[in-house]
Write a structure and sequence with these properties.
There is one protein chain. This protein has 12 helices and 4 strands, in the order H-H-H-H-H-H-H-H-H-E-E-E-E-H-H-H. The protein is mainly alpha-helical. Helix 2 packs antiparallel against helix 3, helix 3 runs antiparallel to helix 6 and helix 5 packs antiparallel against helix 6.
Length: about 325
């Protein structure tokens, strides 16, 4: 039996109480924490095959090494989150190897192949920035002690990924010509993908458990603004167009396109001209997963057979 009622625990964590053990949780707290950790773990895991494909387009051996280091970090971050889920009674082997591809909980953006080096570095610059925005908020505010301690290492390494992306976005944009055009094309489809990553607008949010249990501190719209506050100036500063701008009147960044809107997976193109769509259609698209979902999950799950061969040979 839990030590506290849901209301007692919510009050305690908002007064600074840090949860350390499962017997201090209510079922509501535990469920919200599991959802948060599962999204975190799956996102880190699925980013690895996405990055791996594009890393083979690295312009030199040194850059290939840098990309490989980022992939190793992402896998290690996934392992940390799955390990924390084990403490809550879940089976890591089942989570990684026992689920169907559509059952993974990562953002829709990572179900799309990264086709070249420019797309990889823009993913570092935009997607890893989204990851830092989300995890940085969790680190500052979470009421779950084991996660707060684990995120010290994760945040430091994710910052390296972000800097890698920024440095290469600046370098390729400065080169001009086709190099800059590739960065622009990558931003054109990944910028709205990252904006969508933060989820429903606050006035439509149906679940607030993560805020009520102080598993995070910022709302979806606040996180989206934090991301745009650094992303928009970065892109504008290197001559890359983004469909958003700062509004003096509203004192916030606003999008220059209907949000949300439809996306053409085959052409990697957002259909701004077709207008705003409902969030139910967005959820339908997310649940259908993207074109690389099955292939990426299979790439990870195939590793289980290789690992067992190594164990048998030892």
């Amino acid at each position: 039996m839990a030590r506290y009622t849901d209301e007692e625990l919510k009050e305690k964590v908002h007064n600074g109480f840090i949860v350390e053990y499962p017997d201090e949780m209510t079922e509501g707290y535990k469920s919200a924490l599991i959802v948060q950790l599962l999204v975190q773990a799956d996102t880190e895991l699925i980013s690895a095959p996405a990055y791996f494909g594009a890393s083979r387009d690295a312009p030199s051996t040194n850059t290939m090494v840098s990309a490989t280091a980022i992939i190793q970090d992402e896998l290690a971050h996934a392992n940390i989150a799955y390990r924390l889920l084990e403490d809550l009674g879940l089976d890591k082997e089942q989570l990684v190897y026992g689920r169907e591809p559509h059952e993974f909980k990562h953002p829709y953006g990572f179900d799309h192949p990264l086709d070249n080096w420019a797309e990889l570095v823009v993913a570092n610059g935009l997607y890893d920035r989204a990851g830092i925005t989300l995890l940085g908020d969790v680190y500052k505010n979470t009421s779950y002690g084991p996660l707060k301690r684990a995120l010290v290492k994760v945040d430091q390494e994710e910052t390296f990924h972000l800097r890698h992306g920024e440095m290469w976005m600046k370098r390729l944009s400065k080169a001009g010509g086709e190099a800059k055009a590739q960065i622009q094309r990558a931003v054109d489809w990944m910028f709205p993908m990252a904006v969508e990553w933060f989820g429903l607008p606050d006035d439509m949010k149906r679940h607030s458990g993560q805020l009520e249990y102080k598993l995070k501190g910022m709302t979806n719209d606040e996180l989206r603004q934090t991301w745009m506050k650094s992303t928009v100036p970065l892109c504008e500063g290197i001559g890359i167009d983004v469909p958003a701008h700062w509004s003096d009147e509203e004192q916030k960044f606003v999008l220059d396109y209907p949000f949300p809107c439809e996306y053409d997976e085959s052409e990697k193109r957002w259909l701004f001209d077709e207008g705003e769509i409902s969030w139910s259609k967005v959820f339908e698209r997310w649940k259908g997963r993207g074109p690389a979902n099955k292939r990426y999950v299979e790439m990870i799950q195939e590793g289980r057979g290789f690992r067992h061969q190594l164990e048998m040979a030892a």
